[in-house]
Amino acid sequence: MKISVFGLGYVGAVTAACLAELGHKVIGVDIIKYKVDFLNNGEPPVEERGLRALVKKSVLKGRLSATTNPKEAILNSELSFVCVGTPPKKNGDIDIEPLKRTMNDIGKVLKEKEHHIIVIRSTIFPGTFEKLKKVLEDISGKKEGKDFDLAVNPEFLREGSAIKDFFNPPYIVVGSNKKEICQKIFKIYKKIKSKKFIVNEKIAQAIKYVNNSWHALKVTFTNEIASICKALDIDSKKLMGLFCEDKQLNISPYYLNPGFSYGGSCLPKDTEVLKVNAKKLNLKTPVINSIQESNFEHIKRAINLIENLKKKNIGILGITFKEGTGDIRGNPILPIINHFLNKNYKIKIYDKLIDESDIKLLDMSYREEIFDLINKKNLKEQTGSIASLFSNLNDVLNQEVIVVSNREESLKDILKNLKEHQVIVDLQNLFKQEDFKARYEHL
């Protein structure tokens, strides 16, 4: 394919050279003349391991060249990758002005071309796609999806191993609402063996931010643990090596499903112990310290979601802290129940794992849990009986709002019979609106 690559920084230079290595005819574009001259002379415009050899090889074979002229590049290519930098503003937000200027240049040339595909490879925050599309449409006078197509193809390149990462990516992601455009972009990478995903533009824009924030979180969490280890004379390398041996929970997709706050007797207790003892050691551990606070903020989001429905009758499906257990300790649904009891909502609870003998023992446990939360979060004390709120399944399903509290997949069939005037609040994000006649909400 004939391809143009706008921006010859790290991402653009590597992308251009690697695409040429795959056999494509590539024209690099940059407003900085020395970068263009370097590349045309077989020299990389940036230093990156292995890039010099790739550039020299492709320039000699006539597969790679560069220009400062956007018109020359677009009129001589079928598709343009945009790899322009997105530097941070002083306030930390993304600066898209360089991208807008590039889209302005491309838009002018689109007036003279029947059809062209523009693929954004720059890292952009969700919402940027629409802004760039508007620039292209306003300048060209043409319509995206008809006269030209715009897609997102995020890169996953690390400086120092960018070429290796290009040819061995974790996956190739393309964001577009047109499957045929995605397939055409995938053909560019047909020699690369990797999973390929078609997603919408918002997901394609968001994935890089999720990846990098997660990587940053892992680094800072590990360093906080290492600081605690040093103070306790523990070998942090051996400890984290052992930590990484657990592929079922620690290094796995487990716990990475969007849902409700964590609960139970272990996670809250052990996280708090780690936080308290780090403080005793005079160590600042802001990541560890913020875990419980973040968890409680998610509980407050659930409260706000339910309050905004403006309905006073609530049914709770599940009061045990997760499916398959009769334990209610630490269940984040408890402060939610407490909150709405204090606001005089009518609440009914059903949990198939709780029998009559369990209900008689619940009040003491409930009070202990709520008192503990009151001490930490200044919640209003509730002295009523939670046992009196338990009812049968039909009564719960007759309420205006039905809250799904734990991850019980079998509830889907039960909830299908709810009426259109009712609302399902799925705290665990298990289902989707198409599954039900009732209105569906999730965190």
Characteristic terms for this protein:
elongated, alpha/beta, 13 strands, single chain, five-stranded parallel sheet, 443 residues, six-stranded parallel sheet
Would you give an account of this structure?
By secondary structure, this protein is of the alpha/beta class. The chain has helices spanning 10-21, 33-40, 51-60, 70-75, 97-110, 128-140, 162-167, 179-188, 201-231, 236-244, 267-280, 286-307, 333-342, 356-377, 393-397, 411-415; strands at 2-6, 25-29, 64-67, 79-82, 116-120, 148-152, 172-175, 196-199, 313-317, 346-350, 401-404, 423-426, 439-442. Strands 3-2-1-4-5-6 form a 6-stranded parallel sheet, with helices on both faces. Helix 5 (97-110) runs parallel beside helix 6 (128-140). The radius of gyration is 28 Å and the shape is elongated. The two termini are 44 Å apart. The model has no long low-confidence stretch (mean pLDDT 92).
